[in-house]
From TrEMBL:
<dbReference type="InterPro" id="IPR039231">
    <property type="entry name" value="TPGS2"/>
</dbReference>
<feature type="compositionally biased region" description="Polar residues">
    <location>
        <begin position="220"/>
        <end position="232"/>
    </location>
</feature>
<protein>
    <recommendedName>
        <fullName>Knr4/Smi1-like domain-containing protein</fullName>
    </recommendedName>
</protein>
<feature type="compositionally biased region" description="Basic residues">
    <location>
        <begin position="234"/>
        <end position="243"/>
    </location>
</feature>
<feature type="region of interest" description="Disordered">
    <location>
        <begin position="204"/>
        <end position="243"/>
    </location>
</feature>
Length: 243
């Protein structure tokens, strides 16, 4: 079962092949190549058992690793039935970009796919968690030769690094910084904010209002209209109506 993003891609176009050249004087030199196999050419990489025979030929089953915990995340895929692997790009013979289902159960649809790169030494290198992320990386690297080796511990070859330095210098710098961060653990400095901002706060904001009895009490307001009316009533009572 294909992931949703890869399924949408194949519903839009049955594979892709985009190449670009560089013209130097009168000759054209092929440089970039972005390729994804059509559905009919999605070949499955697997081996049922070791095929070592009299000729002492070594198969993928002979170089497969063994582990006690196959469900652990981040483990490379297996060449046998424990993983389902489909080739997306042959990378011109320099490796294979594969759609991998790390944990597959026989008889059930595979889920939780990832993108891995199988280099020439048959070592697995994790690339991305989704096809969409891999497609973006391919476009950002402009399909330069052997750009997939930027995800490996081997790194780019001198020739591939020259092409990246010419046409994708920003991406090359980002890839080198990511490799440096993975190899070296940079300590995180802890900052004491109280010491950094000491003396920066104005003294007025630090002063608080006293909580004692120095506050002025509000004087009750006199009802001027009421006092005038009482005075007039007293005056009327004391006066004689016939005078």
């Amino acid at each position: 079962m294909l992931p949703d993003d890869l399924k949408s891609f194949y519903l839009t176009t049955d594979g892709i092949l985009l190449t670009w050249n560089v013209q130097i004087e009168d000759s054209k030199i092929p440089v970039g190549k972005m390729e994804l196999h059509p559905v009919a050419k999605l070949s499955k990489l697997s081996v049922s058992a070791s095929t070592t025979d009299i000729s002492n030929m070594i198969s993928m089953a002979d170089i497969d690793y063994t582990t006690d915990n196959d469900d652990e995340e981040g483990k490379p895929p297996h060449f046998d039935g424990r993983s389902r692997i489909f080739e997306l790009d042959s990378c011109g013979g320099s490796g294979k970009v594969c759609l991998v289902y790390p944990t597959a159960v026989p008889g059930l649809p595979a889920q939780n796919s990832e993108i891995w790169f199988l280099d020439r030494s048959l070592n697995w290198n994790f690339v991305s968690e989704s096809f969409t992320t891999y497609f973006r990386l391919m476009v950002l690297h402009m399909g330069l030769p052997q750009w997939q080796y930027s995800t490996t511990s081997i790194g780019l070859t001198p020739k591939a690094k020259q092409w990246c330095n010419l046409y994708a210098p920003v991406r090359l710098e980002l890839d080198e910084n990511l490799q440096t961060q993975d190899d070296i653990d940079i300590p995180i400095a802890k900052v004491d904010l109280a010491k950094v901002f000491k003396g920066k706060i104005p003294e007025k904001s630090l002063k608080t209002k006293p909580a004692g009895g120095n506050q002025k009490k509000k004087q009750p307001t006199q009802n001027i209209a009421g006092s005038k009316s009482m005075t007039s009533m007293r005056h009327l009572r004391g006066s004689k109506p016939w005078t």
